[in-house]
């Protein structure tokens, strides 16, 4: 078959092993790393990836050939946990943080998430759209081609809906593909005066059915944490969401281990997120029930803690893990997934191959898109990050610099030389 486009002469191409499911435990050590190879693209999809020169049967009079001598290619990166859409920012809390006031204490005083709720409620659709678009523009130049985005800064229907509609509109208009998660259960809003049970019941009775009816999200998530929502409340909400057909995620063991992992295992949540405080018993449960551990080391870094999630233990226990930014205005204000990948190495001692698998193939399965993205299997979408790096190790070792040079989405060049086109 004749290719539309062939990207040639890569010094390395990182090809995750794609067996139709996330890579678990020791499988995450494996990848096909092709030396001196090419990527042939047809109709926005992968036609062939192989070593050497492309054969003449792939090349027609209209085939565009682009030379990428000395560069590394990987599948487009997938940021599978972000709080993308919000009003305002929280640099005013930074000094408090530096003076030792904890994240949960700032929240207790009405700051933190609740401060962003106030800014988001008063922001217009256009304002939220522009702000989120700017974040996506930054993400794409760092090599990201798919993003999971959560609501959760409205905590009332009007604003939660506005956030979800912003995600829907961006999914139409922006080259990045978005996967939407409904997360009204992010904090108890002031109107409920600390009554988490009543708020959860309101979400179940009034919001969940509307999110479903208007097809505004595929996943449902909740913040299971001391002083936020209990494991019992999390179970109640996620069970109701599951009955309505939502796929599940849960913020669990971020700061304290209060049972969120058990909820994830029991309800077969696709993933449990954060897991900084995960216990050995929790890890065993997640491994047995096939829950993906989504690790967010940028949050540990930004919360100024040294309790990074025990990634190695999770791999030893046979879990599948992913890494993502948690991009949000409070606990992890960043759009740079490369820095998160580097923290995966520097702070969790993952290898470059494990890290690349975490943000490609495993992240694809964690957002429910394992059949179309995350690897270079023939027929998958040609979402490609091209790195100004000669091999897989280099972008993890050379840190805090954007090393993604070009990005292809559905076979089209969407970012060139660090500039969005
Ligand atoms: O994943 N944990 C809850 N939510 C976010 C933080 C949101 C915020 O601080 O605004 C998180 O860390
Ligand atoms: Fe989060």
UniProtKB/TrEMBL annotation:
Enzyme Commission number: 3.5.2.7
Residues noted as binding Fe(3+) in the record, renumbered to the chain: 81, 83, 251, 326
Annotated residues for binding of 4-imidazolone-5-propanoate: 90, 153, 186, 254, 331
Cofactor note text: Binds 1 zinc or iron ion per subunit.
Alphabetized UniProt keyword annotations: Cytoplasm, Histidine metabolism, Hydrolase, Iron, Metal-binding, Zinc
Binding site for N-formimidoyl-L-glutamate: 153, 328, 330
Protein's GO biological process: L-histidine catabolic process to glutamate and formamide; L-histidine catabolic process to glutamate and formate
UniProt-annotated location(s): Cytoplasm
Domain named Amidohydrolase-related: residues: 73-414
Pathway: Amino-acid degradation; L-histidine degradation into L-glutamate; N-formimidoyl-L-glutamate from L-histidine: step 3/3
GO molecular function, one term: imidazolonepropionase activity
Cofactor(s) required for function per UniProt: Zn(2+); Fe(3+)
Entry's Gene Ontology cellular component terms: cytoplasm
Entries under Gene3D superfamilies matching the protein: Metal-dependent hydrolases, Urease, subunit C, domain 1
InterPro entries on file: Amidohydro-rel (IPR006680), HutI (IPR005920), Metal-dep_hydrolase_composite (IPR011059), Metal_Hydrolase (IPR032466)
Residues engaged in binding Zn(2+): 81, 83, 251, 326
EC class name: hydrolase
Catalytic activity, reaction form: 4-imidazolone-5-propanoate + H2O = N-formimidoyl-L-glutamate
Chief location category: cytoplasm
Taxonomy, superkingdom: Bacteria
Residue ranges of the TM segments: none
Function description: Catalyzes the hydrolytic cleavage of the carbon-nitrogen bond in imidazolone-5-propanoate to yield N-formimidoyl-L-glutamate. It is the third step in the universal histidine degradation pathway.
Family stated for the protein in its record: Belongs to the metallo-dependent hydrolases superfamily. HutI family.
Protein name (record): Imidazolonepropionase
Annotated organism of origin: Vagococcus fluvialis bH819
Name of the gene this protein is made from: hutI
């Amino acid at each position: 078959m004749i290719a539309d486009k062939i990207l040639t002469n890569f010094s390395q191409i990182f090809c995750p092993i794609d067996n139709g499911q996330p890579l678990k435990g020791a499988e995450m050590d494996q990848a096909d790393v092709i030396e001196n190879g090419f990527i042939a693209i047809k109709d926005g999809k992968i036609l062939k990836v192989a070593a050497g020169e492309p054969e003449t049967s792939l090349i027609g009079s209209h085939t565009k050939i682009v030379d990428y001598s000395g560069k590394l290619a990987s599948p487009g990166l997938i940021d599978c946990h972000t709080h993308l859409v919000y009003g305002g920012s929280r640099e005013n809390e930074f000094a408090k943080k530096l003076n030792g006031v904890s994240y949960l204490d700032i929240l207790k005083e009405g700051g933190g998430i609740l401060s962003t709720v106030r800014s988001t409620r008063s922001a217009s659709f256009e304002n939220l759209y522009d702000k989120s678009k700017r974040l996506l523009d930054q993400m794409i130049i760092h090599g990201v081609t798919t993003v999971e985005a959560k609501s959760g800064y409205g905590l009332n229907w009007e604003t939660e809906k506005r956030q979800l509609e912003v995600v829907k509109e961006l999914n139409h208009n922006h080259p990045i593909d978005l996967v939407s998660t409904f997360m009204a259960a992010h904090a108890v809003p002031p109107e409920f005066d600390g009554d988490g049970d009543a708020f959860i019941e309101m979400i179940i009775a009034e919001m969940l059915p509307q999110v479903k009816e208007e097809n505004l999200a595929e996943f449902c998530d909740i913040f299971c944490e001391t002083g936020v929502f209990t494991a019992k409340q999390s179970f109640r909400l996620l069970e109701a969401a599951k009955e309505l057909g939502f796929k599940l995620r849960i913020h669990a063991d971020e700061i304290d281990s209060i049972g969120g992992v058990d909820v994830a295992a029991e309800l077969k949540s696709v993933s449990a997120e954060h897991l900084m405080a995960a216990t050995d018993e929790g890890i065993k449960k997640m491994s047995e029930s096939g829950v993906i551990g989504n690790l967010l080391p940028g949050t540990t870094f930004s919360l100024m803690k040294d309790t990074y999630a025990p990634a190695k233990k999770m791999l030893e226990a046979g879990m599948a893990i992913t890494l993502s930014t948690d991009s949000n205005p409070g606990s992890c204000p960043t759009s740079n997934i490369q820095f998160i990948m580097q923290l995966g190495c520097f702070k969790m001692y993952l290898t470059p191959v494990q890290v690349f698998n975490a943000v490609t193939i495993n992240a694809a399965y964690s957002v429910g898109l394992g059949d179309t993205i995350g690897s270079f299997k023939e027929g998958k979408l040609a979402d490609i990050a091209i790195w100004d790096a000669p091999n897989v190790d280099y972008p993890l070792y050379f840190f805090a610099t954007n090393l993604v040079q070009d990005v292809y989405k559905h076979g089209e060049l969407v970012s060139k030389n660090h500039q969005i086109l």
